From TrEMBL:
Belongs to the SLC29A/ENT transporter (TC 2.A.57) family. Residues 1-24, 265-300 are annotated as: Disordered. InterPro entries: Eqnu_transpt (IPR002259), MFS_trans_sf (IPR036259). This is Equilibrative nucleoside transporter 4. Its main location: membrane. Residues 1-10 have a biased composition (Basic and acidic residues). GO terms for biological process: adenosine transport; dopamine uptake; norepinephrine uptake; serotonin uptake; xenobiotic transport. It holds the Pfam family Nucleoside_tran. GO terms for cellular component: apical plasma membrane; basolateral plasma membrane; presynapse. Keywords: Membrane, Transmembrane, Transmembrane helix, Transport. One of its GO terms (molecular function) is monoamine transmembrane transporter activity.
């Protein structure tokens, strides 16, 4: 007889007299097994109970083979900025078609106002609608206006100038809603994945600008007819957006993405998890030379005692979980996350505030007698390409503190007076040579790409995995709030300038 079978065991309280004469007792408990495990481990030597836990089989971490997931995430960043960039980058076509209007400014204002509403709504729905549902709806809303405007306005020209003006603004509003929902959701999405993929999405945002700028330059160079080159320009944008959408649908089902998102949402298997599970409890009480079979039990939750083995299954207690959290819980959750990442949020807010003061509004208005309409196109292309470089540099392994990031982000305010000197005074600016705005745009793009990515990349590691989606949503809220504030300042400036001009005209009138 084995050593285990030969040892005399003291019966556990759960055993019946018949069971103590039997062979093996197995207890399967599906709830609160940690407490049982602790108690058994304390008096196991005294009781002689052999307690065996089922081994934890942790799922191996999937590998991003051939960097396919990273490439898809880079294109995801392209996908939620490409539609809006498509509308504002063909600035030459807009100025020609809507001559004498502030179409670019109106598009920017429309985008920012709608985007603010969208990000607030998305933040409310983050715990009510699934992340992939929000992203899919965003793609559909972004693609629809692109197709509509390119077919009915640019190609078929079915509308008058006034109608086309309104339709373009409405289209930008729909794009703003869809792309903002995408962007905020993707920020939360990337927070669940390793830091490298957050940097990939941020790089994709700059890639969108590079692709659109190069597309506009080549279509304008190769095709002289403005209507045809604009149509081809929009078709390239539509094709890229559809590619981004299809890749998202494929990647979301991959083992790599499901592994990280399930773990971040608490759905994955975690050996340290204290949630409900089962424990196998073996209590061997063998009478010497007696392998008799005990009687069967008819009590609820107890199987027949057959062949010397008594098996009991303890079902877990029912747990009621609300799928719609209360307002107080939502506010408290957000407060806890914001206390951890506030410096990173403020840093990225300052970075984008300075950039939005100058791009695309002021940069699109810089003119030169020699280059004409080509100068704003070149300036925007320079900014987009240097922004792309800055976001690649953000992948360098350097750990920034929130305070230092905020300090260097504030230093970028020097770009505002430099760009003002490129347009003021009107007609003969202090820095009139076209090289100056291109140089400033280059430096502003690199710093925007770097300090606009690093806070988001590093903030994800400051919060637990289950809070990373919400942290990403916070950055989306922060960006859109900054955009709204800048828009309000722009509108106030325009109103003041118009009022001043009107008062001057009244004073000059005899």
């Amino acid at each position: 007889m084995s050593s285990i079978g030969a040892e005399r065991r003291r019966p556990t309280p759960a055993q019946t007299p018949e069971e103590r004469e039997g062979g093996v007792v197995q207890s399967y408990s599906f709830d609160s097994y940690q407490l049982e495990e602790e108690e058994i481990s304390k008096d196991a030597p005294e009781r002689g109970v052999l307690a065996l836990s089922e081994p934890d089989f942790e799922e191996p971490i999937p590998d991003d083979r051939y960097h396919g997931i990273y490439f898809a995430m880079l294109l995801a960043g392209v996908g939620f900025l490409l539609p809006y960039n498509s509308f504002i980058t063909d600035v030459d076509y807009l100025h020609h078609k809507f001559e004498g209007t502030s179409i670019v400014f109106d598009m920017s204002l429309t985008y920012i106002l709608v985007a603010l509403l969208a990000v607030i709504l998305n933040n409310v729905l983050v715990e009510r609608l699934s992340m992939h549902t929000r992203i899919t709806v965003g793609y559909i809303l972004a693609l629809g206006p692109l197709v509509f405007v390119s077919v009915f306005d640019v190609w078929l020209a079915r509308f008058t100038t006034g109608q086309a003006y309104i339709i373009n603004l409405v289209s930008v509003g729909v794009v703003a809603f869809g792309c903002t929902v995408q962007q905020s959701s993707f920020y939360g999405y990337m927070g669940m994945l390793p830091k490298r993929y957050t940097q990939g999405v941020m790089t994709g945002e700059s890639t969108a600008g590079v692709i659109i700028s190069l597309s506009r330059i080549f279509t304008k160079l190769l095709i002289t007819d403005e209507r045809k080159n604009t149509l081809i320009f929009f078709l390239v944008s539509i094709s890229m957006e559809m590619l981004c959408f299809l890749l998202h649908l494929l990647v979301r089902r991959s083992r790599f993405v499901r592994y990280y998102t399930n773990h971040a949402q608490g759905k994955g298997h975690d050996p340290r998890d204290n949630g409900p599970g089962y424990r196998v409890h073996h209590d061997v009480t063998t009478e010497e030379g007696n392998g008799a079979t005990g009687p069967s039990s008819t009590e609820e939750g107890v199987e027949d005692f057959v062949g010397g083995t008594y098996v009991r299954f303890d079902a877990p207690k029912a747990k009621i979980r609300r799928s719609w959290p209360g307002v107080r819980d939502m506010i408290l959750h957000r407060y806890v996350v914001s206390r951890v990442i506030w410096a990173y949020m403020l840093s990225i807010a300052v970075t984008y505030s300075i950039t939005l003061c100058l791009f695309p509004g002021l940069e699109s208005e810089i003119r030169n007698p020699t280059l004409g309409e080509w100068l704003p196109i070149l300036i925007m292309a320079t900014f987009n390409m240097s922004d792309f470089v800055g976001k690649i540099l953000a992948a360098l392994p350097y750990d920034w503190s929130g305070g230092r990031l905020l300090f260097f982000s504030c230093l970028r305010v020097v770009f505002i007076p430099l760009f003002v000197m490129c347009v003021y005074p009107a007609g003969a600016p202090y820095l009139s040579h076209p090289a100056w705005p291109c140089l400033f745009s280059l430096l502003m793009g690199v710093t925007n790409g770097y300090f606009g990515s690093v806070p988001m990349i590093q903030a994800a590691g400051k919060v637990p995995p289950e809070q990373r989606e919400l942290a990403g949503e916070f950055f989306g809220d922060c960006l859109q709030s900054v955009s709204f504030l800048i828009s309000v300042l722009h509108v106030a400036h325009c109103v003041c300038m118009s009022s001043t001009a009107f008062l001057c005209s009244l004073q000059e009138t005899p």
